[in-house]
Amino acid sequence: MSSEVIQVTKDDLGYALRVKNIPKETIAVSNIGAELDFKLAAIASPAHAEATIVASGWLNVRPDEPKPLSWFLDQLWKITSFLALLAEKPMPPDRIELKIGAHGFVLSVLAPRPAIEYCDHREHHAFFISRTRIGDDLGRIVASWFELFPRVELPVGLALSTMASDDLWPHVRFLSLMQALEGLHRALFTGNYMAPEQYGLVKDALINAIPANVGADHRAALTSRIRYGNEIALAKRLKSLAELLPNTLRTRILGSKDIPRSWIDTRNYYTHWDEALRSNILGGQAMYDASVRLTILLRALYLQQAGMSSDTLESCLDGHSDASQHLRQLNLPEETGRAPAS
Questions:
Q1: Is the domain of 57 the same as that of 18?
Q2: What is the pLDDT of residues 79-97, one digit of tens each?
Q3: Segment 115-149, tens digit of pLDDT
Q4: Cα–Cα 20 to 30 A to 122, which of 90, 151, 217, 252?
């Protein structure tokens, strides 16, 4: 919460600490036939020498018609994925309640979840994107996210689980983020060189051209490669993704106008072990720094696809979240004209 929400006053009676009453926000999501309420709650715990106020954020999901419990859990996964992109931290619920309106009952729901840590931000500026930065666009962006989610559920799951894992080795983190980036392109675009029906003729011609003396195993391997021959290369996929962002935003995130070739060669080397690529692969600090940029790139692309403006994303890079600060540090050598430290 910001300092505007928590207020401290002093009068003749002493000091008083108050959490300002923030009106709930209601967003209609026609895609799922429900309304979402975002609201703030707080619990005070006075003691002999100190007083504590613990604030909590609540999300209410109210469908237009009765739904099974599994439906509510599905919507929860969708919205917590969106919140994790904003927060720069996982946002799993630490409490789930089921309110039975007709009877006034409140039931606690116990549901298994992955062993991930809760968001531990203590200051509003620790979030990658705060509520204030989004402004009046929140309702539109949330509704758009629910429309987008069915297409990107699998790649965003890979991206967020990688971002949330603190103990990954640099190679695993980098390759997982690159895989998540490729998955995003496959979810958004067809990624073919030509129409499938046109390539069907090319595929048949190539398969028929395989010499008769090629062994069965070799023929099967060649046929498999030809089957995927209409898919564009990884470099082309990543280039088209990067170009979704305006030039200034893209350059700040990537450190250049395009995806660095070393990223692609590193991914391809550890996938195919092609020694011809070895001289251009990343290692050590360079691989770690690339993962920082990849994480921010993925976050920016998903939020942009949900309808967040480029100006808002630009302003977030000027913020005080860990990712923004780290990116600013990486870009400092380029901004000052100095070579980056090796």
A1: yes
A2: 999 999 999 888 888 788 8
A3: 667 777 777 788 888 888 888 899 999 999 999 99
A4: 252
As a whole number of Å, the end-to-end CA separation of the chain is: 39
- For tokens 């195993």, the residue is 217
Structure tokens at 101: 């309106």
Angstrom distance (rounded) from CA 234 to CA 131: 35
Of 40, 67, 94, the residue at which a domain comes to its end is 67
Identify the domain containing residue 327 by its residue range. Answer: 128-191+232-336
Place of tokens 């968001």: 119
Residue ranges of E strands in 64-178: 97-100, 105-108
Total number of domains in the chain:
3
Query: Residues 48-63: pLDDT tens digits?
Result: 677 777 777 888 898 9
Phi, psi at 111, each rounded to 5°: -135, 135
Same domain? For 136 and 245 the reply is yes
Cα–Cα distances in Å, from 326 out to 54, 121, 131, 221, 334? 30, 17, 21, 45, 14
